[in-house]
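Consider the tokenized backbone below.
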């Protein structure tokens, strides 16, 4: 289950009122930094941009592939452990604006996690250490450590135990 903070909106839809929830200038600054980082071919500089200007918690040796898109309004709510890979064109969201409410949630990605290309990670999700997320997945709930998930809707492909057994059987052949 996703862990979200919910805020009701009484007038226009929540997105129409977004600058009541986040500063216009913060969004402008974040947009510029994110666009620079999306095209940045140097991973150390990309991580430095994320840590320094967006206040994201990024572990050592973590790699964001080309065109990865982090949340433009609340990127500081994203945490990625060490030695993880965020695949090409992946989107990590920490907010949802709906008609009558908006929702915020931290995204926590563990250590040595592999996120495939074109994945969308929704707010309030935790992805455990050593998990693998297949390309094109919409991550709409938590992913247990060591689990291989994929699809839309996301399903468990292999549990941690099945992954270990699969690896052992490969070693025997």
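A designed sequence for it:
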């Amino acid at each position: 289950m996703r862990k979200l903070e919910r805020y009701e909106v009484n007038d226009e839809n929540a997105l129409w009122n977004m600058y009541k929830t986040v500063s216009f200038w913060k969004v402008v600054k974040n947009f510029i930094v994110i666009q620079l980082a999306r095209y940045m071919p140097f991973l150390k500089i990309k991580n430095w941009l994320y840590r320094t200007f967006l206040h994201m918690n990024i572990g050592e040796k973590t790699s964001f592939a080309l065109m990865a898109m982090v949340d433009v309004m609340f990127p500081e709510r994203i945490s990625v452990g060490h030695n993880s890979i965020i695949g090409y064109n992946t989107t990590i969201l920490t907010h949802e604006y709906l008609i009558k409410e908006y929702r915020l949630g931290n995204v926590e990605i563990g250590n040595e996690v592999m996120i495939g290309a074109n994945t969308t990670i929704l707010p309030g999700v935790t992805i455990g250490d050593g998990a693998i997320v297949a390309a094109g997945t919409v991550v709409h709930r938590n992913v247990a450590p060591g689990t291989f998930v994929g699809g839309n809707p996301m399903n468990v492909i292999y549990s941690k135990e099945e992954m270990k057994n699969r690896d052992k059987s490969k070693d025997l052949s």
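The mean pLDDT is 94.
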